[in-house]
């Protein structure tokens, strides 16, 4: 069996928070938006239909759980969930806390300026909060 690996483009701008039964939960290093990325820990997945039916149900539940927890943690107005894969083909699902007046509101976060990395202590605190929320 081939081992799971995280695409370098995902690992270069995220921090690993924790592993759920199916997915790895990453925190995007962009202080403008509280942002999680869930990556199924299975090799060679690019599309949602590549995931086995059982894992797909679990993955959906993990996305719902991450969405609920992120909304509770941040008190945000809206949660955006997206699966694009045009730049990074490895299957990954974005869960993003959004608020009126944020750097991209009301549009999508993609293509809206450059990421603003967290200060190291703020990133560590956010990752710790994400871990604790699960």
Can you walk me through this structure?
This protein is α+β, with helices and mostly antiparallel strands and 134 residues long. It has a single domain, classed as 2-Layer Sandwich (HIT family, subunit A), CATH 3.30.428.10. 30% of the residues lie in helices and 22% in strands. The protein contains three helices and five strands; from the N terminus they run H-E-E-E-H-E-E-H. It has a five-stranded antiparallel sheet with strand order 1-2-3-5-4, with helices on one face. The longest helix has 22 residues. It is globular, with a radius of gyration of 14 Å.
Short summary of the structure?
This protein is α+β, with helices and mostly antiparallel strands. 30% of the residues lie in helices and 22% in strands.
Secondary-structure blueprint of this entry?
Layout: H1 8-11, E1 14-19, E2 23-28, E3 35-40, H2 53-74, E4 78-82, E5 93-98, H3 120-133
Antiparallel strand pairs: 1-2, 2-3, 3-5, 4-5
Task: Give keywords.
134 residues; HIT family, subunit A; 3 helices; five-stranded antiparallel beta sheet; 5 strands; alpha+beta; single chain
Distance separating the two termini: 29 Å
In CATH terms, the superfamily is HIT-like
> Which fold name is given in CATH as the topology?
HIT family, subunit A
Number of helices: 3
The CATH class is Alpha Beta
Secondary-structure class: alpha+beta
The average pLDDT value, as a whole number, equals 96
Succession of helices and strands: HEEEHEEH
Annotated CATH architecture: 2-Layer Sandwich
- Biggest β-sheet: strands ordered side by side in the sheet: 1-2-3-5-4
The biggest beta sheet, please? 5 strands, antiparallel
Total beta strands:
5
The fraction of residues in strands falls at 15-25%
> Percentage of helical residues?
25-40%
User: How many domain units?
Assistant: 1
Principal-axis shape equals: globular
Radius of gyration: 14 Å
Poorly predicted residue ranges: none
């Amino acid at each position: 069996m081939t081992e799971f690996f995280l695409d370098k483009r995902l690992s270069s701008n995220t921090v690993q928070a924790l592993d759920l039964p199916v997915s790895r939960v990453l925190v995007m290093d962009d202080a403008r938006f509280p942002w999680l990325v869930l990556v199924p820990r299975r090799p060679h997945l690019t599309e949602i239909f590549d995931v086995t039916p059982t894992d797909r149900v679990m993955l959906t539940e993990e996305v719902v759980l991450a969405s609920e927890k992120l909304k509770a943690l941040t008190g945000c107005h809206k949660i955006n969930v997206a699966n694009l894969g045009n730049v990074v083909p490895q299957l990954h699902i974005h869960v993003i806390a959004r608020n009126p007046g944020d750097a991209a509101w009301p549009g999508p976060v993609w293509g809206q300026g450059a990421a603003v990395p967290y200060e190291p202590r703020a990133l560590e605190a956010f990752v710790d909060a994400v871990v604790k929320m699960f």
